[in-house]
Amino acid sequence: MIKKIKEKIIKGNDIYFFEVISNKIVINNNYKGIIILDNNLDELKQINIFDHMMIYSCYINENDEELLLFCEENKCLVYVNLREYDYKVIDLREEFLAMGFSPVYLWDSNRLILSTYDGKFYDVDVKEDSNALISNSDVSGKYPLLYELWLQTTKHKIVNIHPNNFQFIFKNDQGIYYLHDLLNNNTCINDYLANMAHEITFEQDTFVFTSEQFISVVKQNVEVARIETNNAYMFLRTRFEKTTVSIRIVVLNGSKSDNCKNLITMYDIK
User: Fold this and answer.
1) Which of 97, 178, 186, 213 has the most CB atoms within 10 Å of its CB?
2) Burial 27-47, CB ≥16 within 10 A → b, else e
3) pLDDT tens-digit profile of 243-253?
4) What is the value of pTM for the model shown?
């Protein structure tokens, strides 16, 4: 059974960034900062950071409700504490900008270990506002699971990754999709839905396939819910919100006629 529990229309904001951390929803505020919503979709805070801000990727610390935003065009990282609603801008040196950060990362207290596609690791200390390269031997010695995850991702075509659980979805040379973990377990994923979707998200044994026209929720290889869009909107992104009573997803919908009009919906699936 699927039940829509909340929805909110947002106008005048070109939303391209959308994440859920604990019970908070974070979206970009056009190109100047972020907006934080609660799980009733009420606005908690606007954080204006700087003009012409462009978020390229995001690194989440779920336990402490922290984000690190990579703003490549702005040549910086932005650390955001979602509990205190404060932030820091950490400037990046030119040599780091050319590396290209991968989605493999690990939070360690006030430190974030980032990896690059070409095999380098980068230590960001958000407390000291410092950043530096660290050696592969240091990473493999201190963070062996992170290093093994990075090694595994270099062997596959990655579709999505869950670095905190050391899991990722990949597509093999035959076009078959799998969920892979560090115990070398491969779980086959529905190829039809995977090929239809522009985004696949997952949490434990539940997968969400998001296409512009529909969202399919699959649990233990069985479709347990499907949501069809209407003519006015298309599905853009789907995220899980942690809850103990059901599967809860939060969906970003984009207007087909207005780039600055969006709809956020929440669904419970039992």
Assistant:
1) 178
2) bbbbeebbbbbebebeeeeeb
3) 767 789 999 99
4) 0.93
